[in-house]
């Protein structure tokens, strides 16, 4: 199995969450189909057959030291930063 990039995995998880929210708000054939499509994608990406398992695997994959693009990282505050702001 190919390992998805952390960014692709996060996008798939967000897509699934958004589809579930929209389906819960106003369920239609289109929203139900969107949930199914997002669930299928998430399962394929994680090599699983059920959404709860796919979410656990995705969380695990993201927690295993997956690298994050430097552009997406939050800057780390230092004590010097705090001193500069209070000066």
TrEMBL record:
Cited Pfam families: DUF5133
InterPro entries according to UniProt: DUF5133
Name by which UniProt lists this protein: DUF5133 domain-containing protein
């Amino acid at each position: 199995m190919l390992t998805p990039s952390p960014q692709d995995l996060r996008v798939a998880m967000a897509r699934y969450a958004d589809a579930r929210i929209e389906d819960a708000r106003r369920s239609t054939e289109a929203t139900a189909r969107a949930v199914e499509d997002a669930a299928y994608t998430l399962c394929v990406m994680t090599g699983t057959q059920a959404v709860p398992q796919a979410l656990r695997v995705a969380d695990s994959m993201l927690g295993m030291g997956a690298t994050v693009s430097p552009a997406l990282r939050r800057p780390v505050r230092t004590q010097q930063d705090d001193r500069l702001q209070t000066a």
